[in-house]
Amino acid sequence: MASKKLRHSGGEGLADLDMDMSPMIDLTFLLLIFFMVSSHLIKVQIDKRVNPPIATNSAVAEVVAGRIVVNILQDGSVWAQDKVELTSTESITAYVEEGRVRIDEQGEVPRLHLRADAAVDTRVVKRVVQAAADAGVVEVIFGSYAVEP
What we know:
149 residues; alpha/beta; 4 helices; 2 domains; 37% helix; Nucleotidyltransferase, domain 5; two-stranded parallel sheet
């Protein structure tokens, strides 16, 4: 309806119809920055040497904050997320406790994210879980691949 009125007013008013896109671009960038800042990005370095087991009833953990990642390779060696080998139970406890303190300071609940190879002996998994419990972490997330039932 507005276009009919502009056509009737003559051709001289058409030059004034240029739309200024600057506010729209500014708003788009502001929204982009808002969502980038407000979203919580998690960076979990996945060790390619670990082949987790397949679980038909696995589910993605809803809470992603506060994870302390420990990898157990097929040979039973235990590795921290930052590619440092944890050779003893004491070193596992110290690593998990250091992560727990850091996460407690952030006001989150610390969780052990255990990524064990499918072929690893369960005694090694038990040793890591007990070391985490000694460090004060009582919630464990076991990493596995999900398959459709």
